[in-house]
Amino acid sequence: MASKEKPLPANAQEHAIQYSLPEEKIAQGFAHLQHFSPAERSTRANSFLLKSIIFGFCGIIVPPHIIYPIAGIIVGFIGQAARKREKYLFLGGSVTCPACSSTEKIPKTNEQFPFLHFCSQCSARGEVSCPTLSDNL
Ligand SMILES: [Zn+2]
């Protein structure tokens, strides 16, 4: 099966990340992050709100008719607030698992650091963090 990896966006930056297990075992790796300026965050958030409302109103032809526009509006505003807080997008990375020494690929996620990751080989639960990334981007 051919892999369908999308090319990285032009503003993607490489960062060093840490994969740390509860037993104080820490491994280093790298990840690509796409940083958003305040204007880009606002654009992404408003675009999500608009799409949710449009999809909600498209669902009005399917019974029960009134549920879809209401759900679209609610989901749109919740998603808009969440996207306004996202300062970066984790595009994927790679670490070596400190427990089993296998190379572990971490898929794209919109979670912010630190987040949990389970090793696909040994199921060790670790925390992925980025020590070089400051909170006030
Ligand atoms: Zn492992």
Q: Count of helices?
A: 2
The molecules bound to the chains, other than polymers, are:
zinc ion
Can you write the helix and strand succession as a string?
EEHHEEEE
Estimate percent helicity.
25-40%
Strand count, sense and closure of the main sheet?
6 strands, antiparallel
Strand content: 25-35%
Structural class: alpha+beta
Distance between the amino and carboxyl termini: 39 Å
Chain-wise SSE layout:
Blueprint lengths: L11 E9 L5 E10 L2 H21 L8 H19 L2 E9 L6 E4 L8 E4 L6 E5 L8
Helix pairs in contact: 1-2
The chain binds zinc ion.
Task: Report what the structure shows.
This protein has 137 residues and is an alpha+beta fold. The chain folds into 2 domains: 12-36 and 87-129, no CATH class; 39-85. The chain has 2 helices and 6 strands, in the order ββααββββ. A 6-stranded antiparallel sheet has the order 4-3-2-1-6-5, with no helix packed on it. α1 (38-58) packs antiparallel against α2. It starts with 11 loop residues before the first strand and ends in an 8-residue tail after the last strand. The mean pLDDT is 88.
